[in-house]
TrEMBL record:
Its main location: membrane. It holds the Pfam family MFS_1. It comes from the Bacteria. It is found in: Membrane. GO terms for molecular function: carboxylic acid transmembrane transporter activity. This is MFS family arabinose efflux permease. Keywords: Membrane, Transmembrane, Transmembrane helix. The keyword Transmembrane applies. The chain crosses the membrane at residues 31-59, 65-84, 96-115, 121-142, 163-182, 188-207, 237-258, 278-299, 306-325, 331-357, 369-388, 394-416. The keyword Membrane applies. One of its GO terms (cellular component) is plasma membrane. Residues 30-420 form the Major facilitator superfamily (MFS) profile domain. PROSITE patterns: MFS, SUGAR_TRANSPORT_1, SUGAR_TRANSPORT_2.
Amino acid sequence: MTTSSSTVAPITDTSLTGFYKDMTVTEKRTFWACATGWALDGMDFMIYPLVIGTIIALWQVDAGSAGLAGTVTLLASAVGGWAAGYLADRIGRVRTLQLTIIWFSLFSLLCAFAQNFEQLLILRALLGFGFGGEWAAGAVLIGETIRPQYRGRAVGSVQSGWAVGWGLAVLAQAALFSLLPAEQAWRWMFAIGALPALLVLYLRAYVKEPQVAVEARAKVTAAGGSRSILAIFQGRILKTTILASLVATGCQGGYYAITFWVPRFLTTERKLSIVGSTGYLATLIIGSFVGYLVGAWFADRFGRRSLFLTFSLGAMVVVLAYTQLPLSNEMLWVLGFPLGFFASGYFSGMGAFLTELFPTSLRGSGQGFCYNFGRGVGALFPFLVGYLSQVTTLANAICLFAVFAYVLFFAAAYALPETRGRVLSADE
């Protein structure tokens, strides 16, 4: 079995925004649905890291346990992502996306009513199950809908929605913690995480199932059934599954080691208030947003693999400087931009890359498993950073795990082929 089509579409217009004006109505509707979903997904996930200091103070939770809640969320998302990917191959990308959005919106709302840390831990785990599924279904949906010559930029631009969602979470934090006492503000933060449920109405009305997926499911049904959930571990596709899972582990492990603990790093080791740290996080978020857009352009212009190699090296250098050099707070503020840029921009190539690696009949399962396997292993990093920070500085703990992750990311990406421009087929 081949891992993807060998047909490659020529890419003539490589400008950052050139893809959008030439997209069809169907492509644009799918683009905005997935971009909005990913923004709200990012907002939901980043709410907990932003209120972690308040949770620690109110419920007397140690840093390791607080990090465990982030880890449990991501571990559950790994299971949810694989399950949703398989479900997307069985019942469709759009239906699966609707189900996962409703799921994680509901449990974000329920987090607002948690009465102790144990309840919050369980609710975050259940939220994570839907959170991982949303990415799996949405990434396959847009990857199959957008034409190959625009896929890298379109999927990468959708990824920039995460930075928008992160920014919305930081703005909500600044507003709510200024207007309300901390013991009430954190609950309202989780309550606004229910907003993604409204997106389902748009999905039902305007977003269509990709034709290539419809045809592939019809072929599988005509052949007498569906593929096994374990098919991605068989034959020639096994090597692709292993290497793609390692790529996803490295890129997400580094990202979570940084973004989960930077808010806490700023308020403890840099002695900034919650509101005072907003400007520092804003610089990081702006860098992330620009990184996503540049990464999207880079993925189509130079290739997905080149994006991963370049940005993983850049992320290593900036993380070392951010955490290990004796910088003033002013310099740290400036360095937030390249930190966000390199630690986020490589995600712009992930969706398109995984879409192009796997055959259509296994794309949901393969993409859902690999990305969320990486998310599951990367989920250990918030816990491990928090645990290690009890015997060394938080800066050292962040640096150690982030650099390790980026070395793994670089090595696995180097071992995989370039997929830029590959044409998807229902016959795969």
